[in-house]
Amino acid sequence: MSADEDPGAHKAAVAATATHIRSIVSALRELDFGEAPPAFTACTAFTTCTGFPGEETRDAAV
Amino acid sequence: MRPFELTLTAAAEAIRQRRLSPVELTESVLDRIQQMEPRLNAYVTVTADRARRAALEAEREAAAGRFRGPLHGIPMGLKDLIDVAGLATTASSRVRHGHRAQSDSTVAARLAAAGAILVGKTHTHEFAYGLTTPQTRNAWDPGRVAGGSSGGSAVAVAAGGATFALGTDTGGSIRVPAALNGVVGLKPTYGLVPTEGVTPLSWSLDHVGPITRTVADAGLVLTALTGAGPAHLPDPAGELTGLRVGVPRNYYFERTDPEVESAVRRAIGRLEALGARLVEVEIPMTRHIQATQWGLMVPEATAYHAPTLRTAPDLYGADVRVLLEAGEPMDAGDYLRAQRARTLMRREWARMLAEVDVIAAPTVPVTAVPSGRESITWADGMVESVSDAYVRLCAPANITGVPSLSVPVGRDGAGMPIGMQLLGRPFAEATLLRVGNAYERTGPALPLAPLEATSLL
Fold this sequence. Notes:
Chain A is an all-alpha fold. Chain A has 2 helices and no strands. Chain B is of the alpha/beta class. Chain B has helices spanning 8-16, 22-40, 48-63, 106-113, 151-159, 175-181, 215-226, 258-273, 289-311, 318-326, 332-353, 386-392, 395-400, 429-440, 451-454; strands spanning 43-46, 75-79, 117-122, 164-169, 184-187, 207-212, 244-248, 277-281, 358-362, 375-377, 383-385, 404-411, 417-424.
């Protein structure tokens, strides 16, 4: 059944899913982030984003 | 052996030695697609005419002694999120009705330049937002899910309807269908393979990578995708002396089907027999893996779809529309916490991966479930949705960006394939390929999925 056919059921499904997502994501509030910055993906060098020490270089990828 | 049954490595060798022509191989694969499609529905579009023209051109080049490399004349399928100029990128969605890609994605352009021949665009779970690909059937049992979201690509390769294919992976979407259909799937390091021209699900978690019959095949495709120099192909001797293989003592073997666990532990035993040293590892921050994955993926997916969610919501499938709309209330605080959790998780994984060279674990905790099943009840009474179960063991590699290679390690009592994933340090794909290749050489590879079995439906 589409959302058009039963808009009430669709709204209920969205609300239930949103509640479920909120309950899962709320676990992140337990963490002590200290000074950790967000790991945005605009980093140009993987090492500076990841903190992975001594990575193999991109040339050695394959 | 019929041409469509050849692995990429074998087909490439046969073409290079002029024992097989690209035309013969392409016709054989197109014929196989015709046979399998009514039963499996792996493809959105089969580009037969285009493929025949490209094969003829590849044949002319071969006759003139010009070989572009190991992908010369090799038929491939591309997940239908990947732009190819002049073709629709449907994302298996009505939202994309009438779409035409203006230019090639970077990966499509690189593969075409390497001589690969597009035979069609493969089905995805709509916009890659799901783990089953309901349009497509499992190559080994059409009553079971293909896995997703790159279900069409994995089924095509497993059944011989493509010599290799590309998928995308945001929470396991290459590795899950690869494991469920008994083929190899490689999610490379985040950023190694360009995603330009590939419809995103979640920018910070998306990866593009190969789905192939063998580990060596995956190495050949990865080389073409990265635009790198000659491949450091896996060590043919298969010797792993001194290599440290991390075996998780938590998380990866919890709530895992006993048959999956036994097959993966048996495979790890084979790595040890090849000289590897097994080292127990503790997977960090397991309580926050799902929260981080959802905290990143949900708002990014909803943000990407916001315009069409406003103008054409009814064109989405019900499940995907609900997920996208449910993401709207998430705020910047949720998203930033997930990004900061990712920073912490990457640091912890870096510490763990300093102690071992690879980690070996199940790809998914359960094999392909019957189509329509929505949840799994574990021995401890916990009920988990099928999608959550399939994502659970794959998500850490998406969050941290580390590479992960799924290889087939047998089949369960019902005949369904089981996958083991090998995870490594960023840009250590060569190590994963070496270990995966060494494992593969310890026993016979899974054959192509037989169409005869699927004809029982």
